[in-house]
Design a protein that fits this description.
By secondary structure, this protein is α/β, with parallel strands linked by helices. The chain has 9 helices and 12 strands. The strands form 2 sheets. The protein has a 7-stranded mixed sheet, sandwiched between helices. A 5-stranded antiparallel sheet has the order 1-2-3-4-5. The termini are far apart.
């Protein structure tokens, strides 16, 4: 049945698309729903919150992945936390220099449902460089050896439920230890408008553990507020303003959104962020 499928953000705001449910289930952790929308293709909701839709997902996944992988000194070993829809690993595996990718997803049902219903998003599940670990990403990082990962990408949902720990100080401290001063962390940082407090908090907590932190911005129409952020951090000598052009050239023939100009433009910071967190660029 065609209906409005809304994410109720709060008592004053909701974000929705017209469509119908194709599949729904309750996993151990959350309610999983796959929908077919009239305007944006297939989508995934977790506990009633939009996670991805086919029309928007390339912008989100490309901006989470490529600024990190075009600036990290090494990209041989990449850890993805969350991302059970498969879009993030798809973008990571575009790079020939990537040797190993581990997807640490706490809810194995999200992976299985996405593989079944979202084949246009998850196109790299059979890549031999990929390992899928159905496990708690925070515990995975806590138990990892120092310097064992070159890049960590955090593709979590909003800071509630099973994703809450991915926004806490202890998690970012563990990421810094695992990256050992030379790797790059990239996280989805929420909406700079509709989720202002969470966005600012993410930047500030990352600054406690990384010598360089930079928010980046892109439009994601289905997410609250329409504008979305990604926060990049490192303690290496890498510069977010100087991505490696050979890596960009390697992937941009396949990307929908990301290129060198988009990379640099996404670094423009709203004044309301600059004033609070003291970042200037």
């Amino acid at each position: 049945m065609i209906r409005w499928i809304d994410e109720v953000y709060d008592s004053n705001r909701r974000f929705g698309l017209r469509g119908q449910t194709l599949f729904a289930m309750q996993s151990q952790y959350q309610h999983i729903e796959i929908v077919e929308t009239e305007a944006h293709g297939r989508g995934l909701l977790l506990d009633g919150m939009w996670m991805t839709v086919e029309a928007d997902e390339k912008v989100y996944h490309e901006m989470l992945v490529h600024p990190a992988l075009t600036t990290a000194p090494s990209i041989e070993n990449v850890l993805v936390i969350g991302g059970g829809d498969g879009g993030t690993i798809r973008e990571v595996l575009r790079y020939k220099d990537v040797k190993r990718v581990v997807l640490a997803e706490i809810d194995g049902d999200v992976v299985e449902v996405s593989r079944r219903f979202l084949p246009n998003i998850g196109t790299a599940w059979d890549d031999p460089r990929l390992e899928v670990c159905v496990c708690d990403g925070t515990a995975f990082v806590a138990n990892a050896a120092p310097g064992s990962w070159d890049v960590i990408l955090v593709d979590g949902s909003d800071p509630i439920g099973p994703a809450k720990a991915l926004f806490e100080d202890a998690f970012f401290a563990a990421c810094a230890r695992v990256l050992a001063g030379r790797g790059v962390l990239s996280v989805q940082g929420g909406s700079p408008t509709a989720q202002y407090d969470e966005h600012i908090s993410t930047i500030q907590v990352m600054k406690n553990h990384f010598s360089q932190v930079a928010p980046m911005y892109a439009p994601i129409g289905i997410y609250p507020g329409g504008a979305w952020s990604f926060v990049w951090g490192t303690s290496s000598d890498s510069s977010i303003e100087q991505p490696l052009l050979d890596r960009i050239q390697h992937v941009e023939s396949d990307t929908y959104w990301y290129n060198h100009s988009v990379h640099l433009g996404a670094l423009a910071q709203p004044n309301h962020v600059r004033r609070v967190v003291g970042l200037h660029r």
